[in-house]
Prior knowledge:
This protein is an alpha/beta fold. The chain has two domains: about 10-225, Rossmann fold, CATH 3.40.50.300; about 230-295, Alpha-Beta Plaits (2-Layer Sandwich). It is built from ten helices and 14 strands. The strands form three sheets. A six-stranded mixed β-sheet has the order 6-7-8-3-9-10, with helices on both faces. The chain has a four-stranded antiparallel β-sheet with strand order 2-1-4-5. α3 (about 100-110) packs parallel to α5. The structure holds adenosine-5'-diphosphate and magnesium ion. Magnesium ion binds near residues 47, 48, 88 and 162.
Amino acid sequence: MTNRPPILEVVNLQKTYDSGQVALKDVSLSVHEGEILALLGPNGAGKTTLISIICGIVRATGGHVTVGGHDIVDDYRAARRMIGLVPQEMVLEPFARVTSSLTLSCGLFGMRPDRAYLDDLMRRLSLYDKRQSTTMTLSGGMKRRVLIAKALAHKPRVLFLDEPTAGVDVELRKDMWAIVRALRDDGVTVILTTHYIEEAEAIADRIGIISGGSLVLVEDKVALMDRLGQRQMRLKLETPVSAVPASLAHHALRVAEDGDLVYTYDGLKGPAVGDLLFELANAGLKLKDVETKRRSLEDIFVDLIHNGDHAR
Ligand SMILES: Nc1ncnc2c1ncn2[C@@H]1O[C@H](COP(=O)(O)OP(=O)(O)O)[C@@H](O)[C@H]1O
Ligand SMILES: [Mg+2]
């Protein structure tokens, strides 16, 4: 990573809606150019509020944000021009043709449309053949592609995607992931929100976890998986048990629904398998098979939310 200033800087951001609802408590975040950051959190966590503030749709009640060094309030136009937003809700003009809805987007930013760029954009998003269709005749997946193309029409440096794959089928989801990676490879910084853990795990370089209006953790995905990703070993037994035998109580064992034993250990330190297997035999338990698996981000997420373990 370079020492360049972050492309997005969020400092002590707070939002309390007029209703009194506190949506963001004190969120600070720096994002570097060319990364994919996934903001992961359950419904109501504050993801859309955070994005809406950065994009100038909602006004913060505290803190500040800069995009490419431009303050989003004092220097709104310059900041907004650097941003593309694919909103959570579909907002398309039903009777507009694909090409004209892209040129319209350029117009909103006072930009003359760059035809060659827009053609290339439509090709990359597999929209080119449909460029003369009106948006209302397109399938749901194509409409989402139009939304992305619209968000990119004015050549923003930072693209926000708010729940890009909520309610889409598996195939389209994979397509979206490929599109996001290709954008990143072109140097666009991508910030997306999701409540799908496997989505964050699949495409993000860094993951931020939002819960109850606070950013509880932001970390490089691989480091997060390594640091928190404990491993589990499933000891499949000839004869299922209903409780952990007393002689094995000092091991991190629990009984699975089907009567197997599950042993959790630190992926970095490795298991104390020798001792464990010896003691297992002494307790009269016969092993049928052993399976190991890494804890998923889902397990980590559940721990963070339920145990309030900020694990910084
Ligand atoms: N316009 C609004 N007025 C009042 N409360 C709102 C408004 N928008 C969102 N909220 C509340 O703020 C909290 C965060 O919502 P939101 O940012 O939409 O979360 P997420 O996108 O993570 O689901 C929720 O409790 C939600 O009900
Ligand atoms: Mg939302």
